[in-house]
Amino acid sequence: MQQAVSLESSVLVLNKFFMALHVISAKRAFTLLCKHIAEVVSVDEGKYNSYNFESWRDVSSYKVSLGLTDDDTTSWVKTVSFSIEVPKIIRLLTYDKFPQSSLKFNRRNIFARDENKCQYCSKRFPVSELSFDHVIPRAHDGKTTWENVVCACTECNKRKGGRTPEQAGMKLTRIPVKPKHSPVLRLKLRFEKYESWKQFLDEAYWSVPLK
């Protein structure tokens, strides 16, 4: 179980010029490292160190020999022959495109924006127990946009049905808006584990607290 959780850990991806692009799973990051498409970027006391897959495995083995695997800010993956630390940041060696200026409207970003909270009862739920809700129902010409879609738990979604919140006697906890910055990144930056990401992100991602 822990192995599966570690493989789903978040890894920040940088382009060739050390500019943040997006966040991927550790499983995907290891695939890129094994193919030598990317390298690990480790931030140690303000200094950047780069490692390919083999040298990162050696560093991980050294940490294991010193018993440095119980740190709450790190995740580990065990194989038959060795254990390897999940990198927090990787850099694509030849990808020279710049980050997208527009924020994608998708399930992941909506849930991150709303912090996995139902926007009607204010309770936080696992992603598997949340769904999209159109504030103004599509049957009433409601659009699938940042300003009209929110997280809703199964119970509240069922209660609201195909009605507006007013018709259902329900109230939104906050008005939905399009985020100015990636909600996934801002949500991750709440945790000490991803402190090193700040080196590569504009201060706007983390200087304003989430509400």
TrEMBL record:
Residues 118-140 form the C2H2-type domain. Signal peptide: none annotated. InterPro entries: HNH_5, HNH_nuc, NA-targeting_endonuclease, Znf_C2H2_type. PROSITE patterns: ZINC_FINGER_C2H2_1 (PS00028). It holds the Pfam family HNH_5. PANTHER family: OS07G0170200 PROTEIN (PTHR33877:SF2), SLL1193 PROTEIN (PTHR33877). This is C2H2-type domain-containing protein. It comes from Kuenenia stuttgartiensis. The lineage of its organism: Bacteria, Pseudomonadati, Planctomycetota, Candidatus Brocadiia, Candidatus Brocadiales.
